[in-house]
Structures are given as structure tokens and as C-alpha cells.
Write a structure and sequence with these properties.
The structure holds two protein chains of two kinds. By secondary structure, chain A is α+β, with helices and mostly antiparallel strands. Chain A has one domain (about 20-240): Aminohydrolase, N-terminal nucleophile (Ntn) domain (Glutamine Phosphoribosylpyrophosphate, subunit 1, domain 1), CATH 3.60.20.10. Chain A is built from eight helices and ten strands. Chain A has helices at about 20-30, 80-100, 105-120, 165-175, 185-200, 225-245, 245-260, 265-275; strands at about 35-40, 45-50, 65, 70-75, 130-140, 140-145, 155, 160, 210-215, 220. In chain A, the strands form two sheets. In chain A, strands 8-1-2-9-10 form a five-stranded antiparallel beta sheet. In chain A, a hairpin with a 2-residue loop joins strand 5 and strand 6 (about 140-145). In chain A, helix 6 (about 225-245) runs antiparallel to helix 7 (about 245-260). Chain A is globular, with a radius of gyration of 21 Å. Chain B is of the alpha+beta class. Helices cover about 30% and strands about 30% of the residues of chain B. Chain B has four helices and twelve strands. In chain B, the strands form three sheets. A five-stranded antiparallel beta sheet of chain B has the order 10-1-2-11-12, covered by helices on one side. In chain B, a hairpin with a 2-residue loop joins strand 11 and strand 12 (about 210-220). The chains are: A alpha+beta, B alpha+beta. Chain A: It is found in: Cytoplasm; Nucleus. Chain A: The proteasome is a multicatalytic proteinase complex which is characterized by its ability to cleave peptides with Arg, Phe, Tyr, Leu, and Glu adjacent to the leaving group at neutral or slightly basic pH. Chain A: Its main location: cytoplasm.
Chain lengths: ~280, ~220
């Protein structure tokens, strides 16, 4: 009722003890397109929905490499996210310069959180309108953190932010108990499925999503489109065969996979995988 | 009354020699591995060579503490470049960055005598030679450090474009093959080791070509 009187300044409390500008900033995160993160003991996977405004434009970059061992996915005001990524990169470089070792993830998120807090207590500033999923590896293992515009941060086994993230979160809540022991491939598959949940009916293609991985012995990198499409095809085939043995469809998909795959080996492996799952008996 | 002078210097000279030779599709960069102070040897096994970017290697002699600091600054700057441009720095770009970094400390210089070697954007070998405050030039070959006075005339004799020696000659990349250039480097270090007390122990030879980077060592006299 009295929201409008106390929401002009970030430095004005409401009678109920809330800072509305900060809460509005968190709304901005919910409006951004979805970003998802999951972690196992040895790997962390980030995925995000990347939809271009129109067919003519390219889509926005939402996943940034911060250092070899840290990456971040953002949701909300991507410009704010870019600026914060630059800050994170700079902090990692400076720490490495001084200590000749990688910046522990927990330290970085605290610095990020403190930076966000400053903007909630200055009358000439506004809060950052972006939520960050920070994925990283350090001596104490694999980590996934979520940094809020409010200056809070939390560690997660798996999380999703942005629009239609609830669908992804529901899926993750069902599966998260298995994540710690998951293999890298299963983790990526779960990330793709969670992304598909966020798309809510729209077909999952590598052109609408971006996947990035960091793990033990594997520096942070974004997977390229062909790899992602192959991964999608592999588990889409499995899903189609599990639901209904629609052989013509499966055949068409498998042919498409063979065409796209780099060699007969990959097509063969895909077919054998399908046969093992109790699907259509395909003769190669 | 004469001006009072400091009884302490922030600099020290750790000696050593560096060489780089540019070929048509390769670049050889070499430096000895002896680190000295005064008439003493601190270690026989210290690398003066730093791999700054994929196609860019720097060898530096002089005050190794300043060399180390310089390498770290360039390395950090290169990371920032990669984040911003999504690609590695080219050798000519790194050459300019090194020059600017050195001049930045014009009034308290890095006591570092550098020679930068690598492949340019066309895949041809390139060598850049510097003084301590950043003045630089692209050349076909160069040497720096305590043995450079012994090495440079020999390289001029072998590599400077022969006709005509008298006119200002533009020494282009050498027509020598990669193995010939590496042999020349080994010869040159063996000779410098004979007469320069600060050069010796081992020579570290780095070869940059289309197939990547290759590192080799050769023993030198240890006296």
C-alpha cells in the first residue's frame, strides 16, 4: 500500500524494514532469460537460455570466463553483468600476480557481494540489476554460488535464475541428490534437460542455449555449438526411444545424427546406444 | 661541496646473454642459464626466457628481479587482452606493449635488456630488440646482455644481407633453415662463453614455428 512512498531512494527504509529499490533490482533478475548451474564433486556446469531479440540480431553473451578456474553466468541487466565480470577478471589477475596462485572462489564471491552491498547504501548509486551464478574450482573442491543484487550470496548444489527458472528448479530439486557423484557427461545432460524445462515446450537446439564446463583438469570453457547439438541429439534420441518406439521418427533422427556426426564411428556409437536402451532394432 | 651520492643501489646486474634470430617461417630465441652477482654465481639453472603469448617469446638479461616483475606485468596484461579480444596477442602487438610498459617507468627503469622473438600475423619470423626504456626496432636478428658485444659482430658477419655491406642494409629474415639457425646459435654461445665470464653453464634454445613451440638445452663451459 505504501510501497510508492518509500521506493524512490535506495537509502530510504520502508516502515516494514525493507529497501524497495533492492527488491526491485531482484525483480530485474527475474525478468532476464534463464541461467542454470549444477555441481558435482569434480565439475560444475553452467547453462543459459540465449534468445536473440529478433532473427536479425545476434544473441547476448551471458556466460563469461573469469579465469581458468572460474566462470559466471548472468541473468538480468546484462550490461551490469559485463561490468561485474570485468571486475572479477581483474581481481583474479591481481590475486594471481601477488600470490602466484588462483583466487579461491569463496573469496571472489565475498568481494563481489561487498561490491553489490555498497550500491545499496549510497544515495548516488543504484543496485546492480543482475544475478550471477559463479562456478569455480579451488583447493576445497567444486563450487557454485549465487550472488544477488542485494549483496547476499549463497552456495548451491544446483540453482536456476531468471524467467521460467522455476521449471528448471523443480527438475533440479528432483535430481540434485545424485549430482555429487555424477559424471561430467551426466551433469551436462542434466543441465541440458533443465534448460529444456525452462524453454517450456520450445524445441531445445544449440542455437538457443549456451553450455560451459569447469572441472578438475579442465579449465573453464564454453562448449561450441556443434558439440552441444550432438549432446542434445544423443539424449533426445534416447528420450524418443524410451517414450514410444516411433521407428520412422527415430530413424530420421538417427540419420540426422549420422549426417551431423564427424564420422561413421559416432553414428555407430549412437545407434548402438539406442539398441542397448531397448529401442528400435536398427541395422547399421 | 660535491653532490652526495647514494651508498646503495636499487639495481644489480645478474649477467647473461640473449639472442634471437628470425627465419622465413620460424624464430629461434636463446639465452644462457647462468645467474651471477659480482664475481659469484647464484645459480647455473635459471631461465631468462618467458613465453608471453602463443607466438611470442621474450628473452631478457640484466637485473632478474626487474625481469621477473616485467614478465608478470606483461603476462597479466596479456590475460586482460585475451578477455577483451577473445584471442591471443600477436607478436607485433606484444612488441608495442613491451615498449610502452618499459617507457612507463622511464624515470625508474626496469633494468632489463630484452629481445622479443616470434611469428608475425603472416607466420614469418620476427625479432624485436629493445633498450632498457623501451626504444625498439624490428630486426632480423639481435643479441642483448653481457655477451652481446662478442655475439653481435659475429651475427652481423653471418646474417647481415651481404650485398652491399656498406650501404644501410635492411636485414630481412635470414634465408637459413631452422637447423642451420639453431647451429649458429649454439656456435655463438659456445664462443661467447669462452671470453665472457657471465655467460656459460647451459644455453636454453626455444624454437617457434607453425607446429608450435619447442625447447632445447645445450651444455656450455661451467668456468
Amino acid at each position: 500500500m505504501f510501497r510508492n512512498q518509500y521506493d524512490t531512494d535506495v537509502t530510504t527504509w520502508s516502515p516494514a524494514g525493507r529497501l524497495f529499490q533492492v527488491e526491485y533490482a531482484m525483480e530485474a533478475v527475474k525478468q532476464g532469460s534463464a541461467a542454470i548451474g549444477l555441481r558435482s564433486k569434480t565439475h560444475v556446469v553452467l547453462a543459459c537460455v540465449n534468445k536473440a531479440n529478433s532473427e536479425l540480431s545476434s544473441h547476448q553473451k551471458k556466460i563469461f570466463k573469469v579465469d581458468d578456474h572460474i566462470g559466471v553466468a548472468i541473468a538480468g541487466l546484462t550490461a551490469d553483468g559485463r561490468v561485474l565480470s570485468r571486475y572479477m577478471r581483474s581481481e583474479c589477475i591481481n590475486y594471481n600476480y601477488t600470490y602466484e596462485s588462483p583466487l579461491p572462489v569463496g573469496r571472489l564471491v565475498v568481494q563481489l557481494a561487498d561490491k553489490a552491498q555498497v550500491c545499496t547504501q549510497r544515495s548516488w548509486k543504484r543496485p546492480y540489476g543482475v544475478g550471477l551464478l559463479v562456478a569455480g574450482l579451488d583447493e576445497s573442491g567444486a563450487h557454485l554460488y549465487y550472488n544477488c543484487p542485494s549483496g547476499n550470496y549463497f552456495e548451491y548444489q544446483a540453482f536456476a535464475i531468471g524467467s521460467r527458472s522455476q521449471a528448471a528448479k523443480t527438475y533440479l530439486e528432483r535430481k540434485f541428490n545424485n549430482f555429487t557423484a555424477s559424471s561430467r557427461e551426466d551433469l551436462i545432460k542434466d543441465a541440458l534437460i533443465a534448460t529444456r524445462e525452462s524453454l517450456q515446450g520450445e524445441k531445445l537446439r544449440s542455437s538457443v542455449c549456451t553450455i560451459a564446463v569447469v572441472g578438475v583438469g579442465e579449465p573453464f570453457h564454453i562448449l561450441d555449438q556443434e558439440t552441444v547439438q550432438q549432446l542434445i541429439d544423443t539424449f533426445e534420441i534416447v528420450r524418443e526411444e524410451e517414450t514410444a518406439p516411433a521407428e520412422p521418427e527415430a530413424a530420421a533422427e538417427q540419420d540426422a545424427a549420422t549426417d551431423q556426426a564427424s564420422g561413421a564411428d559416432q553414428g555407430g556409437a549412437g545407434n548402438q546406444g539406442g539398441a542397448d536402451q531397448g529401442g528400435s532394432p536398427m541395422d547399421i | 661541496m660535491t653532490k652526495q651520492h647514494a651508498n646503495w643501489s636499487p639495481y644489480d646486474n645478474n649477467g647473461g646473454s640473449c639472442v634471437a634470430i628470425a627465419g622465413s617461417d620460424y624464430c629461434v630465441i636463446a639465452a644462457d642459464t647462468r645467474m651471477s652477482t659480482g664475481y659469484n654465481i647464484l645459480t647455473r639453472d635459471y631461465s631468462k626466457i618467458s613465453h608471453l603469448a602463443e607466438k611470442c617469446v621474450m628473452a631478457s638479461s640484466g637485473f632478474q628481479a626487474d625481469v621477473k616483475a616485467l614478465q608478470k606485468v606483461l603476462s597479466a596484461r596479456h590475460l586482460t587482452y585475451q578477455h577483451q579480444h577473445n584471442k591471443q596477442m600477436s607478436c607485433p602487438a606484444m612488441a608495442q606493449l613491451l615498449s610502452n610498459t618499459l617507457y612507463y617507468k622511464r624515470f625508474f627503469p626496469y633494468y632489463s635488456f630484452n629481445v622479443l622473438g616470434g611469428l608475425d600475423s603472416e607466420g614469418k619470423g620476427c625479432v624485436f630488440t629493445y633498450d632498457a626504456v623501451g626504444s625498439y626496432e624490428r630486426v632480423g636478428y639481435s643479441s642483448q646482455g653481457s655477451g652481446s658485444t662478442l655475439i653481435m659482430p659475429f651475427l652481423d658477419n653471418q646474417l647481415k644481407s651481404p650485398s652491399p655491406l656498406l650501404l644501410p642494409a635492411q636485414d630481412a629474415v635470414t634465408p637459413l633453415s631452422e637447423t642451420e639457425a639453431v647451429d649458429l646459435v649454439k656456435t655463438v654461445f659456445a664462443s661467447a662463453t669462452e671470453r665472457d665470464i657471465y655467460t656459460g653453464d647451459k644455453v636454453e634454445i626455444v624454437i617457434l614455428n607453425a607446429s608450435g613451440i619447442h625447447r632445447d638445452f645445450m651444455d656450455l663451459r661451467k668456468d
